[in-house]
């Protein structure tokens, strides 16, 4: 019962949210040189497993917690002041909002074409939900430090395969082979051209900001929010030991109440395993450096 992995995987845009069907459900990314980069990198995060949904919000009483957290790490303090995108871009680099960009309501076709140029037609068609691309991406990223957004708001299709749970005596363990389902996506993320993503982000930032305002934040910067999300994810503690599960409504929950209380984004990284999570954190560090002006990112905590 080994989880299958998609064959076409050179894209990072698609760490897709997994359906809650048969899967556990866990409830539960602005910018100088721009960077739609982080949008999709965070997306990548968001999606790797946020769909895995390994756990419902409520945690049943846990048996003896198995996994041990390497020293808990608080949310990372901002590494540098995060400039608002409008203030960060040199005047000569500014791209007029209109008429070059389509209206947000009419942006799906143009955004898909832009993504195809970077990721390829096969990957975009295989992994991307074609409607409401910008709105759903922004809503998903905004949810990464808390519970996940609803299925209809997720920008990526579910990752193929089913959750592998191992019976170990009286305990249910998350099978380590589950991480293999995400290997192609993590490999694609590692290979992504950050600069190309940055250019795309700069181009589309006005629409990303508009979509963020529609979520109820008219006076806040999406760029600032993206930096917060990246810092939150990079500060995810490393977990050692087997991941013990409990049966829960619609799937499974973590037996360790600390893990069960984690945000959707951190649970995604947990599901990737320490090696793949380190790759994602490193990429997020590159993205963050671009977001705050191309300076070198500090090592992830």
Tell me what the structure shows:
There is one protein chain. The protein is built from eleven helices and six strands. By secondary structure, it is an alpha+beta fold. The strands form two sheets. The chain has a four-stranded antiparallel sheet with strand order 2-3-5-6. Keywords: Cell projection, Cilium, Flagellum, Membrane, Transmembrane, Transmembrane helix.
**H/E element order:** HEHHHHEEHHHEEEHHH
In helices, the fraction of residues equals 40-55%
Radius of gyration (CA) equals: 18 Å
**Per DSSP, what share of the residues sits in E-state strands of 2 or more residues?**
5-15%
Helical segment count = 11
Distance between the termini: 35 Å
Protein name: Flagellar basal body-associated protein FliL
Keywords: Cell projection, Cilium, Flagellum, Membrane, Transmembrane, Transmembrane helix
Provide keyphrases for this structure.
single chain; 301 residues; 4-stranded antiparallel sheet; two-stranded antiparallel ribbon; 7% strand; disordered N terminus
Question: Which secondary structure elements does this structure contain, and how are they paired or packed?
Answer:
Elements: H1 36-50, E1 68-69, H2 85-88, H3 108-119, H4 121-127, H5 133-142, E2 165-168, E3 171-174, H6 183-191, H7 194-214, H8 222-234, E4 239-240, E5 244-248, E6 251-254, H9 257-260, H10 264-272, H11 274-291
Antiparallel strand pairs: 1-4, 2-3, 3-5, 5-6
Helix pairs in contact: 1-5, 1-7, 1-10, 1-11, 3-4, 5-7, 6-11, 8-11, 10-11
């Amino acid at each position: 019962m080994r989880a299958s992995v998609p064959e076409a995987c050179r894209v990072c845009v698609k760490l897709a949210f997994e359906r809650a069907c048969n899967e556990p459900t866990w409830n539960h990314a602005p910018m100088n040189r721009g960077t739609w980069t982080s949008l999709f990198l965070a997306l990548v995060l968001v999606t790797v497993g946020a769909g895995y949904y390994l756990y419902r919000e409520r945690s049943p009483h846990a048996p003896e917690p198995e996994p041990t957290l390497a020293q808990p790490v608080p949310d990372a303090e901002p590494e540098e002041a995060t400039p608002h995108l409008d203030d960060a871009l040199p005047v000569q680099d500014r791209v007029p909002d209109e008429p070059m960009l389509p209206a947000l309501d009419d942006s799906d076709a143009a955004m898909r074409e832009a993504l195809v140029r970077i990721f390829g037609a096969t990957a975009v068609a295989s992994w991307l939900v074609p409607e409401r691309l910008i709105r759903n991406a922004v809503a998903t990223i905004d949810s990464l430090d808390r519970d996940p957004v609803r299925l209809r708001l997720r920008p990526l299709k579910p990752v193929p395969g089913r959750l592998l749970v191992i019976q170990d005596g009286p305990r249910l363990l998350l099978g380590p082979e589950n991480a293999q389902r995400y290997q192609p996506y993590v490999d694609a993320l590692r290979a992504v051209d950050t600069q190309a993503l940055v250019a795309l982000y700069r181009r589309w930032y006005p629409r990303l900001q508009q979509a963020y305002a529609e979520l109820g934040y008219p006076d806040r910067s999406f760029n600032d929010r993206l930096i917060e999300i990246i810092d939150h994810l990079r500060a995810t503690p490393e977990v050692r030991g087997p991941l013990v599960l409990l049966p829960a409504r619609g799937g499974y929950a973590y037996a360790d109440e600390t893990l069960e209380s984690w945000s959707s984004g951190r649970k995604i990284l947990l599901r990737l395993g320490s090696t793949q999570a380190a790759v994602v954190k490193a990429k997020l560090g590159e993205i963050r450096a671009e977001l705050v002006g191309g300076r070198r990112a500090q090592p992830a905590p």
